[in-house]
């Protein structure tokens, strides 16, 4: 255990020890917009952690008031500590933004559905800049089928294991009901600018009893958002291709969703329930010309990006099967679940090098990657009365990931076999290189991880709750990793509560980074200059990597009285061993005409510090505790978010403020006004250890601060018919992607303009 963890843990323990008492769980909002439910008896550690400072709960009612356009990330981003970003500061996949918790990047955000990990994005190859051509895993459940979303940031997320260093987003679906119910919803979002994509969504839900002991739920969803026009960013582009055609940064891709899911719940007796679940989802893109450089290549008449615009160039098929058992016993409760999910990632073959990653043509053929994920978890919750009242949790997990990617692994390297015999001199290879002949290398790789975790929710006194925990992961390739945690809550007065936590978390390298047969190229920007390279470079997988780790700390204070709510939280993450394409030349690849390419390798090369503040303020204006009219605001301030080279881990705003005026005008009519203020976003800086990444100060352009407003309302026309409507981006603040790859600075994504949405729901 490192000294930093020991010192920080001691400070936190001393801070919490100056007071005495048990934290009776307050009805307290975590973000200024949403509230957590009361806890009247001591709960499990998991339940207690969901009331930590860095936790937000989004309810089904919140989603109805502010429906996302296509993806649940649209509403998750309204929580404190949350933004949407690419997985690096490069801006390469600027319009494929995903959920980013506390600036740690999407790859450090773990997505769960009903507590089970969703890892489909891991089937998409990982490029040198740390990007994937994916929208992430937040769009597998339609918005109307969500019961609630739990957003856990910081120490509260450590118990979930690898990949949760930034936090966890747990999407909880609606359960079967005791009486027959059903609904059908139609939703559309129409932009004012015809160059932006229209959204249409239709889904249904049916649930109820089949027999005295059997209940069921089934839902289906069809959802389509059209792509932006290919020239939407033309007026903001100055670069041209070699033949003089505009080299335009691509707009947002479209997406097609199809989902079907069924759940059967069997009450074996009064103590036991057995659930069976199966689902099938399909997500296909609608191509807008985006390639790894962010460019649409060329807008030449008659050759609109090789005839692929508007077509589906990549499709993800996800199938999941799960069985779970819950038991309520005299000694406590038990939970056991097992899930298998398979993702087939089918897409056109792509260029091998980073600069043309995603560079496809209609003449290429589609290939399929396959990712299998096996997950088993068991948990016991045991109430104890040993000195103090407490709830002890004992748990175990097993997870296996298996990836087969023939298209990436079996590509020949520049059409050549890697060689260390560079004509005219050069350094020898320091590592063995894979044979590049097609079909000569194993195309699959798998890893197993086993884990034990112990947590205890201890009621030390009437005002003080202490929640220690520890997780031990035994990774097949990286051995033992300890993740200890300590969280605590203290009631200072009836209205004021002090909460804090500290936890260590880890992330195992992904299946591409550790694969010694994975060799991906880069065209030259940022390639190491230690040995002059005339033809870019390649990055080789490294099975000697170490896991990334972080120590996450937070301390917050909250106030809650008669609808008045306020809170502020300080957080800090110390991020170590970040894996990057290191600037170490380990060999060369021969080329034609005397050209050659350096071989680099993934390595644990960077550290980073992320720290900032989150807060909330809720003001009741009318009605008891603001039930008629309330004004709620939350904010995030990123004080520091840089690695050891001075580059941000991901491009996020300096501050984000979300505010909402919520008015229950009548029993059947609700209205809301929302606003979001984004601070300045700064891009990466030039790294002196690499070749020039950005060539001039004018290309390091920040994205200036801006704000967006929206209005919406819902009206219950009858008991069984509800109408919704609203305007997104009320004042039409449009932002455009201003360049390709790093030359856009932080201006790497489109912010869509004013749009009008409407929905209708019929239910029984």
UniProtKB/TrEMBL annotation:
Keywords: Cell outer membrane, Ion transport, Iron, Iron transport, Membrane, Receptor, Signal, TonB box, Transmembrane, Transmembrane beta strand, Transport
Annotated compartments: Cell outer membrane
Chain positions of motif TonB C-terminal box: 747-764
Domain TonB-dependent receptor-like beta-barrel: 265-730
Keyword Manganese attached: no
Domain TonB-dependent receptor plug intervals: 54-168
Family: Belongs to the TonB-dependent receptor family.
Protein's recorded name: TonB-dependent siderophore receptor
Organism this protein belongs to: Ectopseudomonas khazarica
